[in-house]
Amino acid sequence: MKKNIKIITGLLSALLFVATSCSDENVTVYGDLNSDYSSFQWYTSGDRTTYREPNKEINIHQYVGFFDVSQGQKSREWTIPTSAKYLTTEFEEGDTIYTPFIIPNVGTVSTDELVNVYFPEAGEFEVELKTVFDEPVTYNRTFEVDGEIITKSITSTMVDTIFKVKVFPDPVPSCKVYRQNFVTNPEDPTGPTIPDETNPYSEVLLVAEEDQPSIENIDTWQEISIEAGEKLMFEDLSTVGEVDAVRWTTNGGKPEVSAKETIEVAYNKLTEGDAFYTAHFMSRRTKDAGPVKDIAKLIPLKIKVLPSTKPFKYSSGLKVNASGVIQFPVSGEVELYEGQEDKFTVQVINADAGYNQNIAVSSVALNADDATIIELTLAEPVYNTDTFTISYTDSNADDTDGIISVDGRSLESFDPVTVSMKLSEYQGVMNIQNFTGYESEYDSGNQFRQANMKKGVYFAQHNGKTDAGPLYYWRDNSFFYDGANSLKFETPDTGIPNLARLQGSAFKSLSPVPEGKYIPSVWVYIDPATNMSTFQYNMTTNVDATFNFDISTVEKGKWVQLTLPAVSLPAIADGRLDLNVTNTGQDAAQVQKLWLDNFDLLIVNDRP
After folding, report:
1. Which CATH architecture is the domain 175-306 placed in?
2. Residue 314 has what DSSP assignment?
3. What is the mean pLDDT of residues 543-566?
4. Are 599 and 521 in contact (CB under 8 A)?
5. Is this model's pTM higher than 0.90 or not?
6. In the CATH hierarchy, which fold is given to the domain comprising 432-603?
7. In what order do the strands lie in the sheet with 459-460?
């Protein structure tokens, strides 16, 4: 509280100093220090962006400070809700419990200049300030008329002001826990069971809003036993307190921490003896929903993890990353022993280069973030145009020198699996964030001609000069594939003009292109009502760098990556990167709308 008082006092002193340094003709509403000049002025506690807000949002069991700093008043009267309480000014900034500072037996009315009002109940409340002056004062009052907010200047000797305070209740955590269901494998009725795809989970625990589990009553908690590698699912049910987020913490599970509303948690490590795993979660209200508040709750479940009766084997999902490292998941967490390289056979094929050879594995390792993923590094360079076929053979499945799980199972051999590097693993040459990802925020200049982007990056040649439009191109920070922005293209209901162009005037300095072979790529989201068929990117200094994207059959209503056949380009370090949309073959008189993000030239590494 002391900090807030100092901030406000300092601010008022500065304003009063300005007032006394002005001539009589330029005097501010504060008047001079002696003064019989009357003015109406107030502040509320908060930071420099909120202390003049008449509407406040706070957590329950918090307070708001109200300051009447009017000049020339005859009287003032604060009236607070019956559930609210006045506080003294004796508490410190670090105090969080305010009940000891409640002023007893004062009712709801105060005539003090400063009142600290404590709110012990949730809801929407009003605090009223009536101020009577010796002479008329002029102040602004905001009204809502037929849904429209208007502000009027009023002159009167009495000012009646209403402050609205919304008090948010604490979040009340609630959740459910489910366990995996397994069924007989129809292809192997006497073998291990498999996950039930039609009914994957069954509820095992409800943590209701009124439940308050504690460590002290842990002996009463429900106990559940699962096999290593099996999963539990946790679902957030919290609704009280206008919550908008959750944070899970699982002891012994993967992931150990998550902010998703519903999570699947795999338990791979065994518990020993009487030990068990536990979990807790936090129901959260972030600044996007109101005043920040987190409330945590234990999940009263003791989780025991037993040795698995299921095989330890390769799971689908083998891939090759941008560094040429082969990654594949297995059905449990790995405890890896040295000397596994010769148990893998990796065949590398590149038909265009006439290459078909086995390449030795130089190292076997675990992924640093996930011990269910094995990584293979090859002894020779690989290229993103290669195709890889990988197999694993353990000649003695019962040995203790192979790849085994943390619960003691040996990894089963698997037949050759074929994979190529995905486009998502290709590196690009464009400066996506600041240029072709449309992340450069408007700073100065004509916002409309610059398509709402930083001056000098783009020029929307056919946009109007004002918000009256048309505004064919616009950086959209409400919808995007990646980052925080995308590029929206939208026409009036007359459709596409002869040419709507977005000039990339900063191409030279932002993204020079070295000589090489590239796959042109862009992400697009097409509005379902749109019937456009094509758009074009082109680099103005090279005719081969003209990229026409056909969208006539692209799925609408979702982000889709478009690519073109690989093209060889010389080094390009000048000119512009333009985006062109014409009405040729797409001249319907209707609104046409789509979004673009992350245009790039993906580097093709051909095997020599």
Report:
1. Sandwich (2.60)
2. B
3. 96
4. yes
5. no
6. Jelly Rolls (2.60.120)
7. 459-460, 499-504, 577-582, 534-539, 546-550
